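During the first year of the project, the team set up a workflow for recording each protein of interest as an amino acid sequence followed immediately by a discrete structure-token representation. This format lets reviewers and collaborators read both layers of information side by side without switching files. As required by the reporting guidelines, we include two representative entries from the current panel. The first entry is reproduced here exactly as it appears in our internal archive.
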Amino acid sequence: MLSTIEIICWISFFGAIYSYFLYPIVLLGLPKRQVRETEDMLQSTSQPFITFIITAFNEEQNIKEKIENTLEINFPETQREILVASDGSTDATNDIVRAFANNNVKLIEVQERKGKENAQLAAIQQAKGELLVFSDVATRIPQDALDHIVKAFNDPQIGAISSEDRFLTQDGKVAGEGAYVKYEMWLRRLEGKVNSLVGLSGSFFACRKEICKRWDINVPSDFNTALNSVECGFVAVSDANVLGFYPNLKDEKKEYARKIRTVIRGMAAIASKPKVLNPFQMGIFSFQVWSHKIMRWLVPWFLLVLLVSNVVCLDAHWIYLVLLLAQLSFYSLAFFGWTSASLRNIFLFKIPFFFMQVNIAIWQASLMFIAGKRITKWEPSKR
């Protein structure tokens, strides 16, 4: 018979590994969503009208290259428009965008800076397209991206499509995919096969315009679009053929700060949409939110309770000594990775370091959120 402290120890252990390891196993065992394509869509040769929405804030250094990249995408000019939503930019961004007016590029100038989602809403209200493609300035889009997006929307169940992330080194080459990025992209594909993603890639995604009728400027658009898709009877999926390329952050400290911002905004989104946690209202989508979001945000606390309870349980059984040594070894690898940039390039140190960095960021963000910290204004990370 396990004592109370032993039960706490094992609950903490399974809580710590659930989101990363057990949840994917559950998804693998669940029935998969059937892909449907209607005959009229399969036989149609007409192209839908598409609106690109690019959100920018003080991007005078990069906006020209971004617009040129978007104009190079293979798609009939008569079937697309480009809207640049400038979120209160104070530099030369707006003037640069106006110079492309003859290329069917329109500036949506938002005078009062209220955040990315507010700027996107201003563009949505003027969009003519039946499909909307959202993209950040830093994201580079391949020329065939729209072909894959249009093909994916042939499935009438799909309300939104997320790109898959690819990172670029400082010299412009495609970086080798890190283990975490590979894992996240794999998990997204699993979620989409079973039901729906709980969050899109905020830097590049597409959706049906009808979904945007429920746009909420106080909720991150990547989460809100996935939620709206489900509420409107659709699903959000990830497409391995739709790729978004963007540079790695030069400063690792900025990457840590970005993680904190992302978690705080995510927590605020759940707090403002508590129904997503109710399985009687949202069904399997609620299970996915609990598994992917809530349980992952609880990992730092599970780890802390696990370590303390493990120490208390040492005399109960030899397995607790093995468990404690495993924890201490993992944390030691993370510590050495933190102290040495060269060691962080070695897989054995990289994974523990990154895992601990993510969870320390979650821990800090949780405390900040509880203390009342909220992030509404958006400023893209400089890459």
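The second entry, processed by the same pipeline in the following quarter, appears below.
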Amino acid sequence: MKKNLKHVTACVLLTQAAWATAQTYPTKPIRIIVPFGAGTQSDVLGRLIGQKLTETLGQQVIVENRPGAGAILGTELAAKAVPDGYTLTVNGTGALAINPGLYPKLPYDPIRDFAPVTRLVTVTQTLVVNPSFAAKTVKAMVGIAKARPGELNYATFGAGSVNHLTTAMLQNAASIKLGNNVSFRGSADSNIQVMSGELPMMFDSMTSVLPHIKSGKLRGLAVSTATRSLFVPDLPTIAESGYPGFEVAGWTGVLAPAKTPDVILDKLNNELLAALKKPEVRDLFNTLAFQAAGESREEFRRYMVTELAKWAKAVKDSGTKID
């Protein structure tokens, strides 16, 4: 009886301590580590979310850019931070889903070392071609690729990037062999190459190509997501174009170091879900062609597990290796 009473008392004390932590958190500034440079998608999201958390939590939220080594440097720093709720990371597909399959050794594990808070956005990969390119549909492009195997070069951001692996997935699904993977540092350079006709095609984020599709400088063939994009609803999905089950999207979310107290993670999740519903946030997302996500901590964790398996297979099938 005394043992049971002690156990109940201990549970009550722990619950009260957790409640007190949630009520007082935060008591000092919070930093958000972004493992990419200023102006990138993750940086824009980090600063937006940081501003909203500053407004609602009453403490300054500082974005700290730590780019380098394929996002490994900043991600490792976030993984090894003190798990007290005062270090978060805005991070996504490349570091947390692709890198584990791409690098033989990583200084972090996306599942073991992080506590997911919520996914912020998904970003559609869009297959675009030069307007003079003969194909106006995915089926027609595949037909050209089969007639001219190894001749259709395409732009990417380098081996193992989201758009490189998305292209590899399409080649695998359609049983085609495209030409060379011509790498560029980012969307601006690669888009110019396709718009000028130097390269016939590429996958890129809807954020980057939407203005060029609207202006007629690029022709969209399809989107990579399971459903059509809200921003170009007339553009079919690749799944609709003859490849059922094809589904790829980039994503960005907020995570904390593993072992961060649940009460703090729950509070952050609630604050972020509320922020995602604010009109000014939705307006910015629409401007940038981001599709708002927002989900529970457990839903985000399950999503990450699924994404790890998907991208690991994509890396293996593509034959990409980085020592």
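For the second entry, the following points were noted during internal review. The two ends are 60 Å apart (CA to CA). Residues 2-24 form the longest helix (23 residues). Both points are flagged for discussion at the upcoming steering committee meeting.
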